[in-house]
Amino acid sequence: MPNALITGITGQDGLYLAELLVGKGYNVFGLIRGQNNPKTELVEALVPEVRLVAGDLSDIPSLLRALEASEADEVYNLGAISYVAYSWDQALLTNEVTGRGVLNILEALRLYEQIHRRSPRFYQASSSEMFGKVHQVPQTEETLLWPRSPYGVSKVFGHYTTINYRESYGMHASSGILFNHESPRRGPEFVTRKVSRAVARIKLGLQDEIVMGNLDAKRDWGFAGDYVEAMWMMLQQDEADDYVIATGETHSIKELLETAFAVVGLDDWTPYVRQDARFMRPAEVDLLIGDPKKAREKLGWKPRVAFPQLVEMMVENDLNEQKKLHGV
Ligand code: GDP
Fold it and tell me: What CATH number has the domain bearing residue 161?
C-alpha cells in the first residue's frame, strides 16, 4: 500500500483528499501543527484512518522527520495561510507559510532523498489567485501571473519554486493551479460559506441580514471533492507538470446571492444584503475563469458538480447544521 503525507490535513482539501486516498487503499499521514491543535479532533472524527504526525511548514527538521515517519511515496502540500483578505493584515506570516513553506518542504524532500535514497512525488497547491489582474480570459497554464495580494504573491513564489525544483533536480513535482473550490467544509470566512450559512440563518429567523463586500467580482467556483481527484491524478502521471483545475464557468457574487437565496425560496435577495467597506479589499481580483482543457485531455479529469448544485449542497448543509445547533 502506498504512503501519502498531506500538509494542511485539517483544512477542507486535506480532509477530502485524505478520504479519497484512504478509499484507494493508501496509508495516509497528516502533518499537524502546533501544540494541542483544536482541529485534531475534527480529523480524527472524519477520517480516523489518518495518522497524524507533528510538524510545521516553517520547521524543516520537523518536515524531514514527518517524511521519515510516513515513508511517503506521495507528498501533497496543501498547508497554507489561505484567506486572501487576511493576507494584507499578516503579510509576512502569509509569506512565511504559504510561500517559504513550499521551499522548506522541497528542501526537506532533497535532504530525505540524499539520506534515504527515496524520491516521493510532490504536489503543490497553487492557486488561481496567482492570475490576479488577469492578462487573458480564460486563464490557462501559460497566462501571465499578476497576483493582487500578499497571498497571491506567496503562491506565485511556491509555484515557481516547484517548477524550479522539478527543472533543477528532476523531482516529480507538479503544481495544480486550482480555481476557487468550495464545499460544506469551506471555512466561514470565504464568501460561499459566509453566504450559505447566512441564508440558512435568515431562513430560520436567526439573523436579519448579511453584510458583504464587493458584489461584482466573478469567480470560477467548483466542488472541492472533485478537485482533490485532480491532485491525485497529477501524481499518477509519468511526467510531472502544471495543470489548471477549473470548471470553465464564472459567476458573480450577485449570482451567488441570487442562487443561494433561491434555494430557500427567497427570490429577492436585495432586502437582506448590505454592503460595507470593511469587506472590501485593497486590491481586488475582478474576474477568474479557468480553462481546464489540459487537465481534461492529459489527466482525463472533469468536474462533476456544477455551480447550482454546489450552492444548493452548501445551503442545505447549513440549514441542517443551524437547525441542530439552535434546536429550530
Ligand atoms: P478568494 O477568491 O480566494 O479571495 O475567495 P473569497 O471567497 O474570500 O472571495 C471571493 C470574492 O468574493 C472576492 O472577490 C471578494 O472580494 C468577494 N467578496 C464580497 N464580499 C465578501 C465577503 O463578505 N467575504 C469574502 N470572503 N469575500 C467577499
Answer: 3.40.50.720
| pLDDT band at residue 235 using 50, 70 and 90 as cut-offs | very high
Host domain of residue 253: 191-219+249-288+305-326
Mean pLDDT value across residues 110-123: 98
Residues 153 and 210 in one domain: no
For ligand 1, pick from 129, 133, 191, 199 the residue to mutate: most ligand atoms within 8 Å of CB.
191
CA within 13 Å, CB half, 162: 29
Cβ partners under 8 Å of residue 114, min gap 6: none
Span 48-61, pLDDT tens digits: 999 999 999 999 99
Q: Is the Cβ atom of 281 under 6 angstroms away from ligand 1?
A: yes
Position in ligand 1 atom list of the atom nearest CA 212? 23
In the chain, the percentage of residues whose pLDDT exceeds 90 is 99
User: Is residue 243 flagged as an active site residue?
Assistant: no
CATH number, domain at 265? 3.90.25.10
Question: How many domains are contained in the chain?
Answer: 2
What DSSP state is assigned to residue 150?
H
Query: Is residue 164 classed exposed, middle or buried when 0-12, 13-18 and 19+ CB atoms within 10 A define those classes?
Result: middle
**What pLDDT digit, counting tens, does each position of 178-212 carry?**
999 999 999 999 999 999 999 999 999 999 999 99
CA–CA distance, 235 with 109 (Å, rounded to integer)? 16
Shared domain check, 280 and 264: yes
Asked whether residue 119 is assigned to any structural domain, the reply reads: yes
How far apart are the CA of 191 and the centre of ligand 1, in A? 5
What was the pLDDT predicted at 34?
Answer: 86
Residues 151 and 197 in one domain: no
- Whether the link from the prior residue into 184 is cis, omega within 30° of 0, is no
Residue by residue, DSSP assigns 67-85 as HHHHT-SEEEE--S---HH
